Amino acid sequence: MLPLPGCLLTMFSDELEPQTEDSSLHGGRIRSFKHERGNWATYVYLPYQPEEEFTELLQELLSTAGACGVVLTPQEEFHISLSQTVVLRHHWIHPFTQSLKSGLVHCKRFMCSTGKLRVYSNAEKTRTFLGIEVYTGHAQLMDLVGVVDRTMEEFHLETFYKEPSFHVSLAWCVGDMTVEMKECIQELQRLVDEHEEGPFVLTLDCMELRCRTGNKTFSFQLNS
């Protein structure tokens, strides 16, 4: 692996301006790192477009969790993460996305399914999530993580978890509510297992990988 050129490492070093973090501006959430000009929060994921049945089930889950004393906010969008959130310099965006594109050239489209609810929290314990875990397609997801990790290593960025629990985050709340959510997880799982015409299975047609960096989103189609 070639080291990054020194000119890239020092470019714009004088433009960093830490900005005050105001958690009231985004629902009480706290960033894992300070925003600095020229630094772009970046992550890689597989998108999921919710269907009506999913939306109805999610509302039932939120209502039941609320009755248990856990007030959850639904995610604004749904996806399976393939990377941690890393900080990417603006002038690295093009070479970073080109590296991803090259690595994905032989990756094929596949299906994966989820069905078991699980409680997650971020490393800082400032947010707790209700997610639904993947049970088919794990091998293909690990192949994609391998591609993403190689690009991360190329830019000296943090790679993904060694033994990831692939999932779609459904909803979240501020603070460490892990214990409270686990106390009602069986009742929530029952809603999934006994949904209208049998157990609800969230199925993703994984045909497109996306990279979100700041306010830009790059899309990479997987081979049919």
UniProtKB/TrEMBL annotation:
Cellular compartment(s): Nucleus
Active site (UniProt): H79, H167
Pfam families for the chain: HVSL
Protein EC: 3.1.4.-
Residue stretches spanning the membrane: none
UniProtKB keywords: Hydrolase, Lyase, Nuclease, Nucleus
GO molecular function: lyase activity; poly(U)-specific exoribonuclease activity, producing 3' uridine cyclic phosphate ends
HAMAP family on file: USB1
Function according to Swiss-Prot or TrEMBL: Phosphodiesterase responsible for the U6 snRNA 3' end processing. Acts as an exoribonuclease (RNase) responsible for trimming the poly(U) tract of the last nucleotides in the pre-U6 snRNA molecule, leading to the formation of mature U6 snRNA.
Protein name (Swiss-Prot/TrEMBL): U6 snRNA phosphodiesterase
Organism expressing this protein natively: Betta splendens
Gene: usb1
